[in-house]
Protein 1
Amino acid sequence: MSGIVESAGTEAGGRPPAGQGGTVRRALLDAALEVFTERGYTDASLAEMAARSGIPVGSLFQHYGGKQGLYLALWEEFREEQERRTAATLASERGRGVDDPVVLFVAGARAYLGGAWDNRRLGRLFAEDDGPSGFDALRRQWDRAWVRRNARLLRVDERRRAGRVRVSVLTTVIGGAARELADCVDETEAREIVGEVCGILVHLSTPPG
């Protein structure tokens, strides 16, 4: 699998109106994403989000409590989708009998990077330094959990500092590539980035012998 598959509606910014099959929450989140990506978090206006979604500001507060709640809901959605995509890929690979930790790790990384491309508008948003108070700490917490999951996948002894450093470097490579994909506009180039990075990961994740 290439991991580079365009998700319908994600980059185009289109959404069904609230009265045509879209839920209130979906309409609010889609409007929030549009405004956040255009204005940044600090300058984003709740009134503009409400106007674009066609839903009253009061309903926005009822569902999300304000601008911070909308931003964090988008982050949670992005994070959960990346984890779901990666877990599904690993389950599929294991179902085919794949047991090599490096092969599994690279397959998971390819799935994650595919998600970074598919959801690049969200990726661009979260790569910015303009977010709600406490978001950086939340992101660092998730990054640490990500490193621990990768260590288990690669069967690295986390008690050894060298092993922890190796997994941290590998995870940083994936995160850096995801940020590049967030800024990418060409699918062919995105495929090249994913292929290049996966080749690097194969090399770096092989234990020294």
Note: Residues 166 and 205 are 8 Å apart (CA to CA).
Protein 2
Amino acid sequence: MIKIAMIEDDLELASVLCQYLKQFNIEVTNYEEPYLALSALKVNKYDLIILDLTLPGMDGLDVCKAIVKDFDIPIIISSARSDITDKVTALKMGADDYLPKPYDPRELEVRIKTILRRFNHSNAQEEPKNKTFVLDEKKKEITKNGKYIKLTAAEFEVLSLLIKREGFVISREDIFENSDILNQDYESSGSLAVIINRIRHKIEDDSKETQYLHTIRGMGYKFIQ
């Protein structure tokens, strides 16, 4: 599922867009207050941001600047401002697209997927630097210090998700939601914990001294390298 943070003080518009995008497997969390949104970005993982420019307490261009400075995440500006200067400024700051209001929600959905396709492809092309673990999604391989790690399909799916969201806490629910293999049977039987333990034995230098794959009690798992 694609997860999006929307920063929009027009709650009626936000509700319409949230409901429309949901049918395309796009989950939108709207923040009316920009400061609340910036705080949420520090603890939650989102794939893209939809940002209005006219916001309470903080101008949207300043929000855009703050996001670009601290986060590597694509931004679509959604604004009723017609001034070309705002559009040019936002794009120069690092916004990926500018969609003037009013617009058809279908256009927003297409732009979201187009930008994410380009963004994810660009990231996949970048050579990871000084990384112990490297994920190659095309080959379905994960290496540690250049050496191939032999994993089952379920182990690969879980570890690849953790690597892609490195540094963030991933809940059990997130793992199941983003899995094509795991299902509720795994959850009820405790097999996810078994898979995590098997992964630890394969990636940790000492499975009793966790260095990379950490359990965050009551929250989920976090991968750090």
Note: The longest helix spans residues 105-125.
Protein 3
Amino acid sequence: MYLGITPSVSCSNTTENEFFLMLDKNPLVDFVEELPAGRCSLCYCNLLCGVIRGALEMIHLAAEVTFVQDRLKGDDVTEIGITFLKKLEDKKHKRQK
């Protein structure tokens, strides 16, 4: 939403806790012409995975968020895989009197 894009969502048929976000346009790619020589394993847009994982943790959901496809590496779309691991406990701290 903050990047001005709307991803397509694809669910995995084999598991109920996994889905994929496909980005036809990734605004972070606009700032990179090509990956540096010798750094082809660099995942420049991994920032998006961290943002998604952090947002899910804020609502008490642990998830593994990884890149499946990346436009910077020659793929047609940017695809992010999200696997829910568990619901985190809400640890509210009681005030000591």
Note: Residues 69 and 79 are 5 Å apart (CA to CA).
